[in-house]
Amino acid sequence: MLPGLLFLGLACFGLPACEAQRPVVFGGTAPPGCRCVPLTDCPELRPRPGQRWTPDLTAAIQRLRCGFANRAIKVCCGGGQSSPTTKGPPPPTDLPRTCGDTNSIDRIFGGKNAPLGGNPWMVALGYSVPGPRGELKLSYECGATLVTRQHVVTAAHCVRPDDIGLLSLKQANIGEWNTDTDPDCFVSPATEKNICAPPVVVRQIAAATWHPQYNTDGKYNNDIAVVRFDRPVTFGSYVQPICIPNNFDPNIPASSELNPLALAVGWGATEKLSSSPVLQEIRLPLVDIQLCNASYLGILNENQICAGGETGEDTCSGDSGGPLVATGKAGGKYFLIGLTSFGRLLCGSKGSFGVYTAVHKYRDWIVQTLAV
């Protein structure tokens, strides 16, 4: 890694090396007769009063985990029968025709709270992490973007085991806004009434496929992955897929029909140096790739785009994998143009550009990977 780089979390068309690889498959380890309950309701898998967590107990929980309820891990506890399962429809194999729609208006930009329901394609990826006493807890470390009823795209470094280390990708919260509350509510300044979204939609992770040429030359390129849920979601006002453009010119002139400022969204570090439980969004200027590449000593290529560079305005650690979005000047549909990849250690400083994976360069690969 080049000095001073922060790995946040962290095109290829028609080339054989761009073919989808075999995905990492999750789940399928619950034993027959599993009674899947919160760990707090399974005393046999918790230390007795006065005792500490042991490596053997932690290993047993890892082996018997069967999901999460909000941030609480669920385990297969004792006997009983698991709920009967039915085989649902096969996962989508193409991108939806209707996409990029949001009901939200009155957006506020500049590193502020995103409007409730304003980013219905936004997904929080939850990971199980070891706690200070060896127990497991759920932590939201990366963002992702909904592109079908059963798939999201995110950064490769958010899913590849070599990058996430002790973290274990477990679940996706679709339509998430405040990771500390469920359901999410806010008081409307106009009406002073309490407005609430439906309960957050939670899905377990079934498989993850990162680009086969990800980081092949140590330059953090091809930082993109497709993640599949265990079952599809239902689209509604607070859950919608985003559009993936066929083409996109990052050097947007001011006279273009597209807004010259891109929208970055995530739960990453704020100016207070801590992650925000409430989804944040900020408008960032797109930057000439040659200027940006020079600041990174020439490691970038045409499959990446840059944004930011203004003091106090940037994506930071924890925003990894989240979307960089372009819209029309007068609103209209939202298009996913970038995935947060990496930036400088001192994010949000003057001339410190954020680097994003140029999603339109990988549209064909994404569609191909949906069938994996």
UniProtKB/TrEMBL annotation:
Name of the featured protein: CLIP domain-containing serine protease
GO MF term set: serine-type endopeptidase activity
Gene3D superfamilies linked to this entry: 3.30.1640.30, Trypsin-like serine proteases
Protein source organism: Hyalella azteca
Subcellular location(s) per record: Secreted
Keyword S-adenosyl-L-methionine part of the UniProt annotation: no
EC number(s) reported in the record: 3.4.21.-
Highest taxon of the lineage: Eukaryota
Entry-linked PANTHER family: TRYPTASE-RELATED
Comment block on domains: The clip domain consists of 35-55 residues which are 'knitted' together usually by 3 conserved disulfide bonds forming a clip-like compact structure.
Keywords of this entry: Disulfide bond, Glycoprotein, Hydrolase, Protease, Secreted, Serine protease, Signal
A Pfam family recorded for this sequence: CLIP
Stretch forming the signal peptide: 1-20
GO cellular component, one term: extracellular region
